[in-house]
Amino acid sequence: MKRRYQGIFILDLKDREDDLKGVIEGLEKEIVGGGGEIVGTQKMDRRKFARGDHDIDSGYYVSIQFLMEPENLKGVQQRLRFNEHVFRQVYFREEKPKDYGRVVGAGTAAAADAEQVEVD
């Protein structure tokens, strides 16, 4: 059974912002190639890192939501580990949305149902 995941990627484009679209398409192709189905992609801005103990001081943040069999996620993560543009990656498994009705703050409760997936 396919599960819904959200992948957050920090990209190091080495000051080549014009490559951003191609790099995101490459990430999507890797997910699809691993048996996934893209649900949505959100490109966030370039952000400076809070701590400067890395070789780079900022990166582009991208969020990709996708459906995938759980056993395929580890293979995709391992292949993206060798991608020169992926500085960091983290995955969250999203639970089925619960019906909270019209309760104020329902978005907060739904977000609390997301679970971080540990992939070595």
Quick overview of this protein structure:
By secondary structure, this protein is α+β, with helices and mostly antiparallel strands.
Helix content percent band: 25-40%
**Contiguous runs where pLDDT drops below 50 for at least 5 residues:** 105-111
For the sheet with most strands, the description reads:
5 strands, antiparallel
Q: What structural category arises from helix and sheet content? A: alpha+beta
Mass-distribution shape: globular
Spatially, the strands of the biggest sheet line up as 2-3-1-4-5
- The ordered H/E elements are EHEEHEHE
Provide a descriptive summary of the structure in words.
The protein is α+β, with helices and mostly antiparallel strands. The chain has 3 helices and 5 strands. It has a 5-stranded antiparallel β-sheet. It starts with a strand and ends with a strand.
How are the secondary structure elements laid out?
Elements: E1 3-11, H1 20-33, E2 37-48, E3 58-68, H2 70-81, E4 86-94, H3 106-112, E5 115-117
Antiparallel strand pairs: 1-3, 1-4, 2-3, 4-5
Key words describing this protein structure:
120 residues, alpha+beta, 28% helix
